[in-house]
Amino acid sequence: MSTPTSYHLPWDEFRRQGYALIDWIADYHEHVEQYPVLSQVAPGEIRAQLPPHPPQQGEPFAAVMADVDRIIMPGVTHWQSPNFFAFFPSNTSGPAILGDLLSSGLGVQGMLWLTSPACTELETHMMDWLAEMLGLPEQFRSTATGGGVIQDSASSATLCALLAARERATGWAVNQRGGTGQLIAYASSQAHSSIEKAMMVAGMGRENLRTIAVDEHFAMIPEALAAQIAADKAAGLTPAFVCANVGSTSSNAMDPVRAIGEICRAQGVWLHVDAAMSGTAALCPEFRWILDGIELADSFCFNPHKWMFTNFDVDAFFVADRKALIDTLSILPEYLRNTATGSGSVIDYRDWQIPLGRRFRSLKLWFVIRHYGVEGLQYHVRNHVKMTQELAEWVRADDRFELAAPAPLNLVCFRHKGGDAVNQQIMDRLNRSGDLYLSHTKLDGKFTLRMSIGQTEVRREHIVAAWAKIRAASQP
Ligand SMILES: *Cc1c(COP(=O)(O)O)cnc(C)c1O
């Protein structure tokens, strides 16, 4: 047989397979409830079924899809199931999936404005739309001093904010000469682990992250922050960065942004507000109290990929002063020089993030926002909060259970009063059953169940059923 001149998939064949795959995805979402929510496989079970060596000859697409069904699906945990209540949601929607597909289809790499002007300009525009939709103050818009950028995750947003804070606090010296001096960062004991990781990556050292005490609702105590900053200054150290959580991961605790922001302003410390999950609630004016004082922040982020029906990965990261961020992350090798960049009249988002390359991720935001409209998004967020509040009422009304923290939005932290072992038993039984998936945290040293409600297809009947199963699973 002669050697073929191309191994590529012909586009008419792609078309056929693509239609079939879209059907597969639609079927999956329509029938997602039939799978055990938490994958029930043992470690190594999936890998053991994969051939040890890559194929020498290409295989038909149908054979690959058959293995998706046979090998991959048993090892999938169904994040899009309406019975998924663990961690925080990572929801998606038809428009988001299609937007992501279009991004793949175009195969654009948007590192510079020049490398695809639409990729940059649609992103700038979507970030300004989001700023308006959340009621963010003027300085976070591209039309003022700041602007937004899509990051892959809140962890990356936090790292970029920390780097800009580091440079601002040292007059842009660390980028030049290395060594971070004695820069100190602050977050509450409930803050996300990504802050500690950012301290490691930024070369600032995890020992220089101060843990600030929280009140009985797990929110940062501003007076404790002020006292720690004063003590560090007195010791000759340089306070550089505070991360406030608007919706902590463990219990959805809301740090008081205004009081913290006033301290940061007075002390010249960078304030980053991490609202990864809860930020989406600010789509609804009645929930915007969570961002009270946001005008005092230097940076803010939230994840449309958690609760805004836009599949992973989209973190929306906003800065009030884009110059500080760009001065921190900009680098211009000869091979990237071009007239548009040189003119200073365009945004090159590579200067707003750690990697050089970037996907056309604003397409999925554009598709989602245009499909739902602001009203559609508000409708579903309100619905999730309403269901959560109803569940919190049921927990309060059952004298065998108690709420472990306030439930301001779409997370309920609760426990059976019988102690840690009973709560562990409830979680293990339910997660093994495959009927639903819950996760846990520790609050006040006690094992606490978490139920987070933000799945695209979740309805009241799922919450009713889940609560019945939780009560049943608490029986000996
Ligand atoms: C989920 C979460 C994060 C981490 O989000 P990634 O986008 O996965 O990095 C950070 N902070 C808070 C408050 C979160 O809830």
Instruction: Give the % helix.
Output: 40-55%
Number of separate helices: 15
What name goes with the CATH superfamily of the domain at 99-366? Type I PLP-dependent aspartate aminotransferase-like (Major domain)
Q: In the CATH scheme, what's the topology name of the domain at 99-366?
A: Aspartate Aminotransferase, domain 2
- CATH architect. name of the domain at 99-366: 3-Layer(aba) Sandwich
**Strand coverage percent:** 5-15%
Give the class from helix and strand content and strand pairing: alpha/beta
According to DSSP, the number of beta strands is 11
User: What would the average pLDDT be, to the nearest integer?
Assistant: 97
Largest sheet: 7 strands, mixed
Strand order of the largest sheet: 1-7-6-5-4-2-3
Query: What is bound: which ligands?
Result: pyridoxal-5'-phosphate
* Low-confidence regions: none
